[in-house]
Amino acid sequence: MNEVQTQITNVTGKTVTEGGNVTLKCLAEGNPTPTVMWTRLSDNSVVTMPLTNIRRQNASVGYRCTANNGVKSPATRDVFLDVQYKPDHVSLNMSITNKVCTGMAVTFTCSAGAAKPAIQNYTLYKFVAGLTYISSNQFGIFNQILETGGQHIYRCEARNSPGYTSSSNRTLEVHVPALVKIENDTIVVLEGRNVTLYCFSSGFPSPNVSWLDNTVKEVA
Question: How many Cβ atoms sit within 10 Å of the Cβ of residue 172?
Fold first, then answer.
């Protein structure tokens, strides 16, 4: 019988998403057929597969495959896990205060902390009768012209292959200047009779309406 020393040809299963499980597989060949054992490099303790509930800190923990068939020295291969995780600490910032007027421009900046692999894109959403997509890009910067008054709620998300993480909501109050319109600027009324004047107003927030006489004194 021709004895052949063990050789490790490949190790698979090194990539895992954080929180998941992974099974490292050590492919070895030789004659007789080798036995395979996994140990942890930090303490040389024997580990069994699968490795469970993997965290990103496990990426610094090395593992050693030892394949042995009794012919000469065992073959070994050291590997480290590639632990991938979705973006951390996603936040949405605005270039202006929370209260602005229509027609103004605002820059929304979506940012995130650590992510592996790198963030693929950022997406900006607005709540309009539900969550509505606005725009998506690789840089997380969104320029918008505020054309509609009212309270607007925004959120962004950062995404990579393991998943996405959303920011908290940001509220922007867009003010609309007050406008008034009277029903008729010439009203005929008999002396001693009552008359009701109508003034139609619009704006956000809703404007307060008052009437002044020609001496600029408030009468109502």
Answer: 20
